Amino acid sequence: MPRYTSYPTAPHFHPGVTAETYLGWLGDLPSTARLSLYLHVPFCAQMCWYCGCHTKVVRRYQPVADYAGSLLKEAALVAAALPPGPRVLQLHWGGGTPTMLSGDDFQRLTDGLRAAFRFDAEIEIAVEVDPRTLDAEKVQALAAAGVTRASLGVQDFTAAVQEAINRVQPYEVTARAVDLLRDAGIGGINFDLMYGLPRQWVADLLRSIDLAARLAPDRIALFGYAHVPWMKTHQRLIKDSELPDETARWAQAEAAAARLQALGYLRVGLDHFARPEDPLARAASEDRLRRNFQGYTDDPAEALIGLGASAIGSLPQGYVQNAVPIRDYQAAVAAGRPAVLRGRRLSADDRLRRAVIEDLMCRLKVDLAGLCAGFDADPADFAEEIAALDGMAADGLVEIEGGEIRVTEAGRPLVRSAAAVFDRYLKSGTARHSRAV
């Protein structure tokens, strides 16, 4: 089932959107546009067997340093195509492991981005962190570069689970990373936890949540492990026999959500939890929650610019994705052109369905009649989709009243299934997806 961090989803991008298309879209942005930047750093010191990201293991630093130079060149190319005026509200470093970068290269890249783009005075700079490779010197470099939020990969604190996913990370390692970050003034702390992992039981997951809560992260993302060995061959190292079945996965997800809420976290959308005072929780309560390639966000930017190999950008006109192989990405940038390999120009129908799906994913409801009025469309055109929800309605998972569709609390774990009803391309695609829960 697609995660619906975009619509249409990435399997439906095509090569008809080119680097020249992208440059034109950038140039057409208004001078008042608000931007977000995403930088993809596709390197890790060790491969975690559950990983679904575009990344590779490196033993030497030189490939990372060379890649940093390519990121700077791409940033300059993209910034030169923009009109003067757009402000960057958020900068997100993802991977892979962005903290594979040396402190000097991280600072050099951040300085280069500040020179190329106009950073907002209140910009949020977030970085994904591997606690196992974090030290005081690197944390000081992050703080000096203006990082305000760190997202720490945890997954599960149970030793048997960590061994089964090739990520041994004792609780003390994570606790030390949190202390270092807070001592350096990086106050926003996120944790990533997972259910559905090999050798994992409900008791393991609940214990991991309790341990995580001791460290008081502001946000916790609770992801279901997506077992897609046909896409990520390293996942074949995880034994199918050690994975929980669908009933066990459901029990894990429900028990974890209940425990997080009992600990004072508010449930945000499908799989995020945040403290009531956190900006993400406030955005959810004020119907400002959005969804992009980083998941749930309070980011109001009109355009997200992706930098790096495999990075995806979202602009008012559509989506673009850079070449996935690092060598191809670097060759394009070295030749003085964006590394865009494919994308998707949005049709009027795409925009309407994207709005429907985002409302369902973020607000668990959609005013179909109201949305259609804003897009000059007829709600009757969705009669087939409404009928397809009858089964979920009969099970108490959704409620349909007039032109409004509401996902019930019981149906929240299956909200992607409700959203998929409005996905025009899902049945025609050839991509295989992970489970809905």
Largest sheet: 9 strands, mixed
Q: Count of helices?
A: 15
Based on secondary structure, the structural category is: alpha/beta
Oligomer class: single chain
Rounded to an integer in angstroms, the radius of gyration calculated over CA atoms is: 21 Å
Fill in the CATH topology of the largest domain.
TIM Barrel
Please give the order of strands in the largest beta sheet. 9-10-8-7-6-5-4-1-13
Number of strands: 19
Count up the domains.
2
CATH-defined superfamily of the largest domain: Aldolase class I
Residue fraction in strands: 15-25%
- The low-confidence parts are 429-434
Mean pLDDT: 95
Structure at a glance:
With 437 residues, the chain is α/β, with parallel strands linked by helices.
Describe this entry's structure for a reader:
With 437 residues, the protein is α/β, with parallel strands linked by helices. The chain has two domains: 10-307, Aldolase class I (TIM Barrel); 347-428, Arc Repressor Mutant, subunit A. The protein contains 15 helices and 19 strands. The chain has helices spanning 19-27, 62-81, 103-116, 136-144, 159-164, 171-183, 202-214, 246-262, 279-285, 326-334, 348-363, 368-374, 383-388, 390-394, 415-420; strands spanning 34-41, 43-44, 56-57, 87-95, 118-129, 149-155, 188-195, 219-224, 266-268, 272-274, 290-292, 295-297, 303-307, 312-315, 318-322, 340-345, 365-367, 398-401, 404-407. Strands 9-10-8-7-6-5-4-1-13 form a nine-stranded mixed sheet, sandwiched between helices. Strands 14-15-16 form a three-stranded antiparallel sheet, with helices on one face. The longest helix is centred in the N-terminal third of the chain and has 20 residues, at 62-81. 44% of the residues are buried.
